[in-house]
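Anyone have tokens for Succinate dehydrogenase, cytochrome b556 subunit? Sequence:
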Amino acid sequence: MTSTQEVALTRERTRSLYRGDPGMWSWALHRITGVATFFFLFVHVLDTALVRVSQDAYNEVIGTYQNPIVALMELSLVAVVLYHGLNGVRIILVDFWAKGCRYQRQLLWGVGVVWLVVMIPATFRIIQQIMKGIS
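Reply: yep, here.
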């Protein structure tokens, strides 16, 4: 083997699996949003369990949630859960619809469009609540 062939072979072996396709970003984002949703549910179960411990402790924890930073976290939660759910439907369509693989790019764009259409009014609504709470 010549040195040129060895260099080409070495480059081929060390190249990343990432190819820059939007589907790869969708795959990664689906996993990230799933983990984020899991952690939210974990915290939610813990703070709800405080009702059994002490009503005052529960009310105190819930009281800390009444601030603009938590409202922005709620907006992030809506964004994460919405994307995860919509992308999950897309994955089901790709897996179980005969033409799903052929239209997976269009389905991904559809997820993005529906996500934006839902997130725009949700964002305005949550920002209204933040402004109402500040004033």
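Residues 22-53 form the longest helix (32 residues).
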